[in-house]
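Re: [ENG-882] Designed sequences occasionally contain unexpected residues at chain ends

Forwarding the minimal case from QA. C-alpha cells:
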C-alpha cells in the first residue's frame, strides 16, 4: 500500500492494540468482562492488521463458525471487528483489508461464504456482500396486546435463573434448533461466553440479564433471555422489558415464553430487536399494530465460492437455470454457471450455455438465504431476468432467515 502501510496477519500480542483501536472506532472502550469475552473468541491466525510502522491502523477478523442456510449447515467466515483509525480513514485501508481477507478465505478453500453485520449498510456491497436477511425490531405496548390462544394444556414449567446457571439446558436447546433455523450461527463455549457477557458498564441502567427455561414433559423445549430497564412516571410504573433471545421448539413453548415476557409486572413496554420478518408473534396477538414493528437489515452474505455455495444449499422447488455472475474481486466466480437441483440437493458447474439470469455476486449473496427474492431484485433493476426461466421460487425458503445475535 501507499505510505508504507502493510497488511499482515495479526498475532495474539496485537490484541491489546486491536482492542484499543476497536474502542476508538466504535466509541466504546472495551474493558473487563467485555474485553475478556472478545479476547476468548479472537482468532489471531484469521485476523488482519493494517500496520503503519508498528501502529495498528486498521483491523478485521474472520471467525470460524457454522451458519445454517436453506437445507444445510455450512462453515462460514464470520467477519467482525472491522475498523480503521480516524487518522487513517478514506485512504483505502479497509479496501486493502477486505480484498486480502476475501482472497485468504477463497484460497483457504474451507468456506464457500463469508457473512457479517454492517455498522453502516453502505460499506460492504462494494466488496460483494449482499443484504441477505432482514429483522423486525419490536417495541410492544404490552398492556394493550393479548394472546389470542389460551394457555397450553398441560402447562409446561418455567425455570428462571442466571443464564450461566441454566447454560447447559439453554445450549442443548439452541443446538437442537439451530440446524434448521436459517441465519443462525453455531456457538461453542467461547461464543456462549461472548453472547452472555453482561458487564455492568454496558447495561445502560438496566438489570443484569435473566434467563428462563421452558420444560416440557420430556425436558427443556425452549428458553428466553431478557433484562429490564426500570421506569416510573407520574402515571405509575413504566419499565421496559428488553428481550434478547426467544428460542422455542414448538408452538406451546413459544406462546408460553411470550406470555411470560409480555406479562412481567410493572412493565409497559417489551422491546425485542432481533425478531424475524415472519415472527409468529405477529399472528399470536389481538392487536398486532401495538407490536410497534420496524424493519431493519440483518446479515450480509458474500459468496466466496459461487458454485460451492450454490451446490451446498437446497432449493424449495426444482431448478435448472444458467446464472451469469459478475465478480470483479474474485474472478474465479465470474461467468456462467448451470445450477440444477431442488429440495433434495443441487449441483453447479461452469457452462457455455446462454444465461437465464444475470446478476452481480452481491445480489446473488442477497438472495442466498432465501430472504431476498431474485424477482424483487429484478423488479428493482439490479438483476436481469433474460429468459422465462425464473429461479425466484426455487431460491426462496419456507421461513425467513432470522438472527440470534450481532457478532
Ligand atoms: C463487520 C463490521 O465489523 S462492521 C464495522 C465497520 N466499522 C465501523 O463502522 C467503525 C467506524 N468506521 C471505520 O472504522 C472506517 O470508517 C471504515 C472501516 C468503515 C472504513 O475504512 P476506510 O479505510 O476509511 O475505508 P476505505 O478508505 O477503504 O473506503 C472504501 C470506500 O468505502 C467508502 N466508505 C468507507 N466507509 C464508509 C462509511 N462509513 N460511509 C460511507 N462510505 C464509506 C469510502 O468512501 C470509499 O469509497 P470510494 O472507494 O468510492 O472512495
Amino acid at each position: 500500500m501507499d505510505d508504507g502501510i502493510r497488511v499482515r496477519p495479526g498475532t495474539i500480542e496485537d490484541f491489546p492494540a486491536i482492542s484499543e483501536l476497536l474502542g476508538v472506532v466504535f466509541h466504546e472502550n472495551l474493558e473487563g468482562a467485555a474485553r475478556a469475552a472478545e479476547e476468548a473468541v479472537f482468532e489471531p491466525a484469521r485476523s488482519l492488521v493494517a500496520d503503519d510502522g508498528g501502529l495498528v491502523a486498521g483491523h478485521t477478523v474472520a471467525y470460524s463458525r457454522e451458519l445454517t442456510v436453506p437445507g444445510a449447515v455450512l462453515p462460514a467466515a464470520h467477519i467482525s471487528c472491522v475498523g480503521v483509525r480516524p487518522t487513517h480513514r478514506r485512504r483505502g485501508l479497509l479496501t486493502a483489508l477486505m480484498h486480502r481477507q476475501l482472497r485468504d478465505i477463497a484460497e483457504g478453500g474451507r468456506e464457500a461464504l463469508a457473512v457479517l453485520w454492517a455498522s453502516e449498510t453502505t460499506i460492504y456491497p462494494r466488496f460483494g456482500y449482499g443484504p441477505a436477511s432482514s429483522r423486525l425490531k419490536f417495541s410492544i405496548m404490552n398492556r394493550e396486546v393479548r394472546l389470542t390462544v389460551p394457555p397450553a394444556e398441560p402447562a409446561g414449567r418455567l425455570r428462571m435463573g442466571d443464564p450461566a446457571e441454566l447454560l447447559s439446558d439453554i445450549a442443548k436447546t439452541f443446538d437442537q434448533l439451530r440446524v434448521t433455523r436459517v441465519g443462525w450461527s453455531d456457538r461453542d463455549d467461547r461464543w456462549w461466553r461472548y453472547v452472555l457477557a453482561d458487564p455492568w458498564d454496558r447495561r445502560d441502567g438496566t438489570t443484569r440479564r435473566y434467563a428462563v427455561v421452558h420444560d416440557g414433559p420430556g425436558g427443556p423445549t425452549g428458553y428466553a433471555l431478557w433484562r429490564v430497564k426500570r421506569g416510573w412516571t407520574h402515571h405509575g410504573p413504566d419499565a421496559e422489558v428488553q428481550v434478547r433471545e426467544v428460542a422455542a421448539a414448538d408452538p406451546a413453548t413459544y406462546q408460553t415464553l411470550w406470555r411470560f415476557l409480555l406479562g412481567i409486572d410493572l412493565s409497559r413496554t417489551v422491546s425485542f430487536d432481533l425478531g424475524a420478518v415472519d415472527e409468529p408473534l405477529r399472528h399470536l396477538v389481538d392487536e398486532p399494530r401495538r407490536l410497534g414493528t420496524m424493519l431493519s437489515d440483518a446479515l450480509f452474505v458474500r459468496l466466496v465460492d459461487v458454485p460451492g455455495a450454490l451446490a451446498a444449499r437446497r432449493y424449495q422447488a426444482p431448478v435448472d437455470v444458467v446464472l451469469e455472475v459478475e465478480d470483479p474481486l474474485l474472478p474465479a466466480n465470474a461467468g456462467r454457471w448451470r445450477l440444477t437441483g431442488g429440495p433434495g440437493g443441487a449441483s453447479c458447474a461452469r457452462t457455455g450455455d446462454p444465461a437465464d439470469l444475470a446478476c452481480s455476486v452481491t445480489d446473488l449473496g442477497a438472495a442466498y438465504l432465501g430472504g431476498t427474492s431474485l424477482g424483487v431484485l429484478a423488479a428493482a433493476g439490479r438483476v436481469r431476468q433474460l429468459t422465462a426461466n425464473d429461479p425466484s421460487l426455487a431460491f426462496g425458503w419456507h421461513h425467513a432467515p432470522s438472527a440470534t445475535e450481532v457478532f
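QA comment: On inspection the terminal residues look reasonable. The two ends are 29 Å apart (CA to CA). Proposing we downgrade this to a documentation issue.
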